[in-house]
Task: structure prediction
Amino acid sequence: MTPETYATEYAPTLPGGHLPWLADLRADAAARFANLGLPDRKVEAWRYTDLKPIRDQLFVPRNGQTGAVPPALLPTAHRLVFDNGCLMESASDLPAGVRLLGMAEAMDQAPELLADNLGRIAAVKGLPLPALNQAMSRDGYLLVVAPGVAVTQPIEILFLNHLSANYPRNLILAQSGSSVTVLEHYLGQGEEAYVLNAVTEIVAESGAWVRRYKIQCEARTASHIATVAAQLAETAKFENFDLNLGARLARSEIHVALQGPGGRADLNGIYLLRGKQHCDNAIHMDHVVGATHSQQDYRGILDDSAHGVFQGKITVRPDAQGIEGHQLNKTLLLSDKAEIDSKPELEILADDVKCSHGATAGELDETGLFYLRTRGIPEWEARRLLMTAFVAQTLDKIGDDAVRGTMDGLVAEWMGS
Amino acid sequence: MSYSAETAEQVSSIAGDKYKYGFVTDIETELAPKGLNEDIIRFISAKKNEPEWLLKWRLRAYERWLGMEEPSWGKVDYPEIDFQDAYYYAAPKSMENAPKSLDEVDPELLRTYEKLGIPLHEQAMLAGVAVDAVFDSVSVATTFRKELAKAGVIFCPISEAVREYPELVQKYLGSVVPYSDNFYATLNSAVFTDGSFVYIPKGVRCPMELSTYFRINEANTGQFERTLIIADEGSYVSYLEGCTAPQRDENQLHAAVVELVLMDDAEIKYSTVQNWYPGDANGKGGIYNFVTKRAACRGRNSKVSWTQVETGSAITWKYPSCILQGDNSVGEFYSVAITNNLQQADTGTKMIHIGKNTSSTIIAKGISAGRSQSTYRGLVRMQPGASGGRNYTQCDSLLIGDQCGAHTVPYIENRNRTATIEHEATTAKISEDQLFYCRQRGLSDEEALGMIVNGFCKQVLQELPMEFAVEAQKLVAISLEGSVG
Result:
């Protein structure tokens, strides 16, 4: 698709055509992407991930019917189901104070809300892939939680993907003092090498508490590029956990701006890779103001020729005093061909800070293995125990029990296969 | 507590006048015409009586350099450098007919080194150190050469080595840092003037410390020295490097290349106390220090250790690296970087593990005060063949005052299952508790600060040879003098 055919042929087919501000937003984004182009490996943030192989797949959106919809991961959840990026099943029986809509529906039902919030977070404005998403997206979800409302049951969003390219665009708006848990489940079907380019924007107003979990089980031939941008007001809390299991090429980019004192962000994740899988976790934690707190813990196990990447950056702006920011990345290499590239970065422009990062990479601990074997545990089981213990420390950071149980099950399944 | 604000104020009040090496030696100087072109390179080459192959090498580098772009990835900010607005060769007139002994050297030059505290007379106090003194573009004197020759050690200016030991120089020059390596190394390859050449033969433990002292004197010049050290099988040498420059309002460029080659079981200990003029309190003047240093551990069981104390320069851009090619080879990097006022330092190391059971240690300490910016940038890479490789990295930053910045940018790449990499970094301000404790024990604010900072740097400072350790500790104290009120 060229910029010309975009404006004349593609844009008019998108939902929300009656909203002039939306047309402008899309046209701007399309122009920005045309201007920036797809990042290559000379761009520092893409140093370890090459998008060239999927360049041509990125621009061919196509609709198609999916197969059977699997049951919900969390039996108690309210659930939305998307087929190739378009809403397929809506949620019912939502508690009072919660709006959960497809983005295309929301363009009719809550246009003012979108006008005020969609595409507003700076972190997703200037980047090429979120710009492409903004220009191309047909659907996604909008979740709005009214002030003071605590949603007790988690909300599950299932994205079933199987074809060409799709661009879910999501927005979570947690109004002051509210709390909500969202599980995004990306599930691949079929064998086609599709591309997913998703964006989730999260606005946590003062005192709000957002927990977002992601289970990425895309098809092993697919590419998964997800960008999350969160903006936290004073005393807001954001907890994120990414479980990366699928996709041939995965990139999970998270930008957090801690904009109010007392804000806190916890970003954790696990990547378990085999074959020729590639998974890149890129994080930018921006301490815009003082008295904010952040923590990151990412662990991975790489087998075969898998390639893991962790790029985590903590920025402390000038005068943002009283900061605590910690970062940890640990990787186990199980094979001689696996590779991990880790770049934990600190950019500190204030002095009253406590920041640290740590990174380790290596094989399973021989001593631990030996110990378990002297206790009569067979080697395969000893290895599995050690690997499970290795990731358990990160899994322990998941605050929601039901989600934790689901993730444990998926991790155990990976270890066993 | 008002500590932070006061500290910042006090630190910023330390002006350039604390820099006691800022004087200028008034001597007649021979300069090449201003600017950079092929003729200047031919001029330098002719001045040094160089063989044809070296001139060709320089010209190849120059041609390559013309097509290169200045690197912009460092976290340093400076106005564009006009490479045509500088002299690429400057030498005291008195050096025109090379003096045969120290007695023939211009006494004004000798006095300069005396003032700098560098003993050029062999009977001087620090008799255990042989010194090569480089003044702008030429080497003024090299001491203890006879003594070293007895042990078979060659220690001389590189321009002399080119003439006296052409096979060695031709074989190793550019073998670690090729002429096409990077913008500044390529510039250096085209216009390098002097520097030291060291060869330690098989099985020899160099009987004394070797040292080169670099002095920039002339205005509007750049210094482009090139150092080449070859440690043959089973040899050992400890090499020290120091440098200073006059206090001027203009920035001056220093782009050096250092190459170390290590054969089986060889060991080189390379220490630097970098004290170029840092510029004044408002960031006016100072040296731009863009340096490429690299060691190739070609032999089995070889070991290289870089220790650096970086207190000077307006801008430091420097990544002493180790290529650990030989099995069981060891690379070490110990660094203290202190920035004050408007100084900027982007420094670190690269450890490239190629051979089996190679190991490396990185200890980097950054101290930022005033409005300065300090960055640790490092790479640790385990190649697929680096089975059993090990790395341990620790980089800590200390912030004094709320106007400065400290950044850490490590790249960690592991392509071998059996290799282990551990990396730790912290950034914090000076602990109020520690300060309070020291003051409560009767120490003044300044003593307390000095003690804490010296403790913070101790792991690195203790790696320095004794003579340098003393100087380095004083430097740490001077850099932070008056920074608490």
Remarks:
- The longest strand of chain B covers residues 286-297.
